[in-house]
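User: Can you write out an input/output pair for a complex, sequences first and structure second?

Assistant: Here is one pair. Inputs:
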Amino acid sequence: MSRQPPQPSALQETTLSSEGVFEGRFLRVWRDTVRLPDGAQAQREYIKHSGAVMVIPLLDNGRVLMERQWRTPMRRVMIEFPAGKLDPGESWMACAARELREETGYSAAQWAYIGGINNAISYSDEVIHLAFARGLRPGSAQLDAHEFLEVFEAEPAQLLEWVRSGVVTDVKTVIGSFWLDKLLGDQWPLAWRSADATD
Amino acid sequence: MSRQPPQPSALQETTLSSEGVFEGRFLRVWRDTVRLPDGAQAQREYIKHSGAVMVIPLLDNGRVLMERQWRTPMRRVMIEFPAGKLDPGESWMACAARELREETGYSAAQWAYIGGINNAISYSDEVIHLAFARGLRPGSAQLDAHEFLEVFEAEPAQLLEWVRSGVVTDVKTVIGSFWLDKLLGDQWPLAWRSADATD
């Protein structure tokens, strides 16, 4: 995910100063003073985020493992792929394996990394790493105390129809569904690696 | 985008109180105290956002209109479809037409709404409405003072390759690219309406 187009200097902003302006229990907001390409100054506010990982778990029966979870900002239950925040220093695969195990009980024999996506580029530095998992074996979920979610299996064709019709609206899950469609259509092959491989 | 699966009460959180805890120049953070399904209480923090609209502008030459823009939280230039925030009370089509005209100079004869996506469901209530535009006619861009972006034309096949290879990572643009792929593959037809239609 590192290849980027040239960075036209006509667009670049230069950060002159940066300060934390809100430290909540979960959210941290920073404010930068920047110099614009025309020399004027402006301010930008954004959340500093530790990053996250989402897993698209491919079951041997052809279905994918998904979750229903209440999301307070949305005031409703959302359909999502398993995901969670990176711990400090944690690799994407360690985080993916941990979240998959904690939330669903499953462990995976193989992983394929597909890239990172940026979900709120005007006000958050978050990157969500996306990975496929296969060779799944069930176990016992280990939800955090006071964490509530339902795990279920979905047919890929059904999932894509949920994306089209607006039942699934969570961006990471929408993008994962499209990648799944490309994978199953033999258009976008993956580079699989063993779960035992070191990073 | 309104059809939703049943809301299992086993997952629902009830908001007991809600207070603004940060009012920045651009960002507003709220903190809710919620009752969890097991009766315990917890706190949630999230950004209240006015919502946004993104346009996938289909040129008569088969290309799509795109932008390069510096995004301070990401510290780099991002490739995006034209987008902007909803003004209070503004319809998606009015906002889409306004942002397209301001940022690129183009106006559209026809629009097709495809739905809303939620880009940060754990910490923002933002919805980004997505729409296709066609019958594009050029005009003069009217950027806000101190707004800098480059407009360019992209081939749909090139754009999809940028998504696959990680050159395009902005979630709204990634999802728009996949929808474009479905449209051009005659898999997901659109319901077009005239730009003159009232909402």
